[in-house]
Write a structure and sequence with these properties.
Distance between the termini: 52 Å
Largest sheet: 8 strands, mixed
Number of domains: 2
Strand content: 25-35%
Bound molecules: pyridoxal-5'-phosphate
Amino acid sequence: MMSTPTPPQHAPIPHYPVVNGELTVAGIPLTRLAARVGQTPFYVYDRAVMTARVQQLRAALPKAISLHYAMKANPMPAVVQHMATLVNGLDVASGRELRVALDTGIPAHEISFAGPGKSDDEIRMAVASGIVLNVESFAQLESAAVAARELGVKANIAVRVNPDFELKSSGMKMGGHAAQFGVDAEQVPTLLNRIKELEQNFVGFHIFWGSQNLRAENVRDAHDKTFALAYRLAESAPSPVKLLNIGGGLGIPYFPGDTPLDLNDISANLQRHVDECQQRLPQAEIVMELGRYLVGEAGLYVCAVRERKISRGEVFVVTDGGLHHHLAASGNFGQIIRKNYPVALGNRMDDTEKETVQFVGPLCTPLDLLGNKVQLPVARKGDLAVVFQSGAYGLTASPRGFLSQGDAVEVLV
Ligand SMILES: *Cc1c(COP(=O)(O)O)cnc(C)c1O
């Protein structure tokens, strides 16, 4: 007998209960929320979901691990303020993000700044504010020393290492090859020596090996290699390592067939490393820096249906939202194969009769596709189409000026 294989499904979406057929966010029905926001499209972020996420992560991880929020995942100031009450520190990727981070009141020594092309002005901002500068080149170190001399302070320098290991990874790999990020592991001893010559304050290492990983065995493997590399590099350090940033890399399920990462499978291995690290680098604070894992599930993108249109037998649901606000959901943010984010009509959640549609935006380009052959109820003008898993790499990761359409707004509830 032939059996039809069931296509892979999206993992269930928690956090947003359906009440009277409507999705609710923080207890607010979606149509009410849209009225309160005053326009579509909008992003809505749920602070309680972020809070629960951090608590759950802390409960699963070894107690000694500090959590940093990587702001580039979602730099909305209200979100960053909220995250600052939950995590130990913030990681910024630009001078503008640094200003938002400093506004939160998080202590400067718990803020770090990564990025391959920092300007001299950004480096001076970092030195003047006393945050940890993750230097990614010899040139950045020299620039920091110039700023420090000018300002009459010492720069707090961590070395961002371009690891010499490649991961057995399914996610985005960031190591084991030539890269603009970090200083090649083999050049780090020379750089450490230069930090000493320049009489700056060596703080530690930042070893970032990848992103969006959903396989616990790959994360365990990365942790094994990261701690081993840190011990090796520490032998050349001018002073004790005070900060060891082991990267983040934890992924969230976006696409059909993706399953959530099991933290238990990571935690025991990490505890073993933490115990060993407390022996070998007793002064080191061990930091994990995460973006999407902390906020990705806490956000929805909501747009309104403009029309339902049939072309040669296919149904197109044309909305006022698209890739200009949500590049990642359109599949153009580094994905190799386009896959659908989970989507729904948020005001029609209980409709059982569904049809297969192309969920598209208003832009004059076939790239403006938010759902390819997705199942939605028969859409009507004004229905609220929702893209889940949109709390990270949404609005600020999108080409908002493209085709000069209106902007989306962002709210935190
Ligand atoms: C982007 C980035 C992160 C966050 O990655 P996520 O996949 O969102 O967790 C963390 N650290 C550095 C250095 C980054 O560049």
